[in-house]
Amino acid sequence: MTEKCTPSTLAIAVLALFVLAGFRLAMAAEAGAPAGPEVTVMTVSPQSARLSLDIVGEVKAMREVELRPRVTGTITAIAFEPGREVKEKDLLFTIDPVPYEVALANARAGLAQAQASLSRVRQDIERYKPLLPDNAIPRQVYDQALAQAAQEEAVVAGRQAAVDKARLDLDYTRVTSPLTGRVGLQKVEVGTLVTAGQTPLVVVSTLDPVVVYFSISENEYLNLAKRQEPQRKTKKKEDSDQTVDLLLADGDLYEEKGSLDYIDPTIDPASGTLTLRAVFANPKRLLRAGMNSRVRVYYDELDAALLVPQKAVTETLGRYFLTVLDDSNKVELRSVKLGARQGDLWLVEEGLRAGERIVVDGIQKARPGMVVTPRALPGS
To answer: What is the pTM of this model?
Structure first.
């Protein structure tokens, strides 16, 4: 016997179908829902850091001398190879010595003549002196002999000075290196007539150590001075020297540490900058005068600094932002106050707490309010 479908039974069946269809649609929607965009994140943790400032500098020799002749004459020999290292007192140039040899011989002859005249006058004095008590000679004759002896002594002294000068001039025909270092390209050739004190011959410069000159603005100077003052009070005198690093043109860090040895006493009123100098050892002769570099000056030390990669920072209208994730991986674009750069890291002074996560890669995909899929930065 067939049962009749009552209205209440039909209503229940239709409701059950709707519930089942809705459950299946919800399951399908959940299964097919796309995951949030994948981003790379790092957890910010406090760490010790030395704050530094990178400043463009120029490498120069500690000592550099442009040689000029001290006597006039013709270059007869060049005794060095340009670009080679030389030692102090090594012979570099020879100026024709013949005229100065003649001058020395003439000066010596004049000296001998003056000495002979002085000797004759002294002999006269020795003969006259025993005759004075008996008035065998007039007193005036003896006094004149004494005066002539004094005059002849002055002549001898003048002739001796002439000999010394002639000997010096002859020595100056041999132009030697005043220091140990590298010699440059000669500016004269054999046969060139050079003039005393005027004609440039060559430049000789030291190799080790070298110095690097750099300049900082007045504001940078004030900032550095204020930050370093507390450290100066706590450091011992022997630890007070300011050490610096040198960044080469290819970005590598020079292996030798440097030290500040000179600070200009005045700020240049034209440029508003202060010039400083750092000294670096150069045992391998890697550094050469004229090289462009950057000096890294350390001015403060922090025990709990929050450092983030520069690529994690975005800038908009002069304001800086970090993309921060909360516990549910929801994106927040947060304004922060940044401090100094430390290599490829940036110091965060305000707006970030230790332990928070920030997006390092995939910032363009992480929009505020969006839920993302985080992947930890390797090594973080």
So the answer is: 0.65
